């Protein structure tokens, strides 16, 4: 099933390649990653990377990624390039893709699945790259770079004026959830967002520590002046929330991202 | 060692601000992120305010520490006073308990914001609170 | 240090500019409350963007100001709480009820006040 979704995504990403690539490059420039690189070089590198990503979606095979990762890792370690620059680029592409999917499929019931399919592929690409780096470099990654990478790997998407979406995917441990909380709150202040949606569809299980972090996020966001809608809580996760004694009545929840988005729009119009 | 250890005597509410400033500066230098800096500074504020409100006079030591076991750096804050001491430590550590009319989060708050918390108190002799935060 | 209390329409706006000692905070509380009475303000906005620490004393004082202002007929909104401060307050007071209304910035704070006062005028409860 997810195979079909990936294929569908690959076709879309091909059709909109120019637009999405341009957006991606401009986002990367905004982050200050490409300051010493010529425009020709940027175009060449990003086109290459973009094509690799699309073909991975299409074929479901990661061979090209692995080869690319080994090459780039060798070069990067030699030239002292920052790890976050290369990993960050991929994560930014994921953001660009996901925003695009939101716009395209916001009224489609497959929205969650498409978002999660997209994240799954890109996350795997990122982890292949990261692994190549670790293998390549005996040196320990500096704390700072590690933090920058983590910050980048937290997908806070601005979907409308004043609205942020945080689609969480995968297993979340306590250290990571703490990072997510901090990053999300910073983004709220940065974008002056008044509504946040935290989507837990892609999170199979949360432990009580992580659940606590989520509750703290809601409370802290409220203190900043933003309301939080939580979507896609699975039954076991709902159980965890109840078990740690959270007053569920203080949470705004919706069963999926689509209905959450609708509610958020209504709340924004008030 | 002078850069990694600072002592401030606490006599008035203005000293609370001084202690907070010293604490934040050291936390920043040690590489704590902005949230941890804020938590540490707030904990210092709670503890030094306790000194001012309950005993009027005391001292705070703020220093860099290292753990060989955990191979990590951190920060330690020791607040001492020669005040009346605390009868029931358990009771004051309950959130909401207060004899001076603040939110009653002084000690329990400092405990929640930090990684380690230790309190020693003898009625009539004084109190010493030690808190630690480790770099993540 | 004297903190200016500005009047915009029927609201008072107080911008805290630097860290304050306990005495200064308490004096500010007095000033604000007497000013509300003086001009019969219907709303109060306290901007704490400049504060990088809000401990339980400051938190309680803000909360006191809001409650007292309420009795004097003015609704309070606190704006500009920093992310790190919000998170610290949540850790600090996870069991206390934070009874202040907050908004991200001055503009949204004013909007919020207007809506609240409108609703109250229409006889609705909060």
From TrEMBL, chain A:
Cell division among keywords: no
MF-aspect GO terms: heme binding; oxygen binding
The STAS domain extends over 153-264
Q: Which InterPro entries does the entry mention?
A: Bact_StressResp_Reg, Globin/Proto, STAS_dom, STAS_dom_sf
Q: Which domain of life is it from?
A: Archaea
Q: Which UniProt keywords apply?
A: Phosphoprotein
Could you tell me which SUPFAM superfamilies the record lists for this protein?
SpoIIaa-like
Q: One Pfam family from the UniProt entry?
A: STAS
Q: Which CDD domains match?
A: STAS_RsbR_RsbS_like (cd07041)
The record's listing under Gene3D superfamilies reads:
Globins, STAS domain
Recorded hits in PANTHER family, A to Z, give:
RSBT ANTAGONIST PROTEIN RSBS-RELATED, RSBT CO-ANTAGONIST PROTEIN RSBRC
Q: What is this protein called?
A: STAS domain-containing protein
Q: Which species is this UniProt entry from?
A: Candidatus Ethanoperedens thermophilum
UniProtKB/TrEMBL annotation, chain C:
Q: Which residues span the membrane? A: none
**InterPro entries, sorted:** Bact_StressResp_Reg, STAS_dom, STAS_dom_sf
Q: Where is the STAS domain?
A: 1-113
Domain of life, per UniProt, equals Archaea
- Which protein are we looking at? STAS domain-containing protein
């Amino acid at each position: 099933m997810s195979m079909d979704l990936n294929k569908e995504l690959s076709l879309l990403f091909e059709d909109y390649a120019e637009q999405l690539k341009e957006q991606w490059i401009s986002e990367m420039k905004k982050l200050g990653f490409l300051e010493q690189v010529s425009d020709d070089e940027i175009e060449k590198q990003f086109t290459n990377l973009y094509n690799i990503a699309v073909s991975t979606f299409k074929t479901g095979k990661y061979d090209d990624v692995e080869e690319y990762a080994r090459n780039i890792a060798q070069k990067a370690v030699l030239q002292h390039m920052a790890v976050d620059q290369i990993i960050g680029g991929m994560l930014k592409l994921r953001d660009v893709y996901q925003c695009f999917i939101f716009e395209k499929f916001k009224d489609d019931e497959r929205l969650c699945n498409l978002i999660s399919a997209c994240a799954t592929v890109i996350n795997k690409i990122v982890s292949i790259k990261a692994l190549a780096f670790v293998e390549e470099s005996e040196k320990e990654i500096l704390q700072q770079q590690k933090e920058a990478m983590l910050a980048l790997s937290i997908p806070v998407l601005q979907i409308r004026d004043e609205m942020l979406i945080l689609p969480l995917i995968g297993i979340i441990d306590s250290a990571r959830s703490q990072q997510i909380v901090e990053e999300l709150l910073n983004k709220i202040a940065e974008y002056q967002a008044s509504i946040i949606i935290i989507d837990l569809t892609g999170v199979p299980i949360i432990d009580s520590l992580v659940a606590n972090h989520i509750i703290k996020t809601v409370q802290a966001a409220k203190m900043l002046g933003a309301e939080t809608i939580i979507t896609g809580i699975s039954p076991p996760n709902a159980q965890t929330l109840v078990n740690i004694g959270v007053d569920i009545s203080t949470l705004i929840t919706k069963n999926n991202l689509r209905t959450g988005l609708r509610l958020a729009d209504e709340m924004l119009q008030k | 060692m002078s850069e990694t250890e600072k002592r401030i005597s606490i006599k008035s509410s203005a000293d609370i601000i001084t202690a907070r400033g010293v604490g934040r500066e050291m936390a920043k230098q040690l590489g704590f992120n902005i949230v941890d800096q804020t938590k540490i500074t707030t904990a210092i504020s709670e503890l030094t305010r306790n000194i001012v409100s309950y005993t009027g006079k005391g001292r705070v030591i703020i220093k860099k520490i290292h753990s060989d076991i955990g191979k990590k750096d951190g920060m330690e804050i020791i607040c001492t006073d020669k005040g009346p001491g605390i009868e029931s430590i358990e009771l004051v550590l309950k959130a909401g308990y207060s004899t001076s009319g603040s939110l009653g989060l002084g000690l329990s708050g400092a405990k929640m914001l930090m990684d380690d918390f230790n309190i020693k108190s003898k009625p009539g002799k004084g109190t010493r609170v030690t808190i630690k935060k480790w770099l993540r | 240090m004297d903190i200016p209390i500005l009047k915009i329409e029927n609201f008072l706006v107080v911008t805290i500019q630097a860290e304050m000692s306990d005495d200064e905070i308490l004096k500010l509380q007095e000033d604000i409350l007497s000013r509300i009475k003086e001009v019969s303000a219907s709303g109060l906005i306290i901007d704490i963007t400049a504060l990088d620490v809000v401990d339980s004393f400051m938190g309680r004082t803000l909360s006191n100001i809001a409650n007292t202002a309420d009795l004097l007929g003015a609704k309070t909104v606190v704006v500009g709480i920093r992310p790190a401060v919000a998170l610290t307050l949540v850790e600090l007071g996870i069991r206390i009820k934070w009874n202040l209304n907050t908004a991200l910035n001055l503009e949204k704070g004013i909007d919020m006040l207007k809506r609240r006062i409108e609703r109250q005028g229409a006889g609705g409860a909060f």
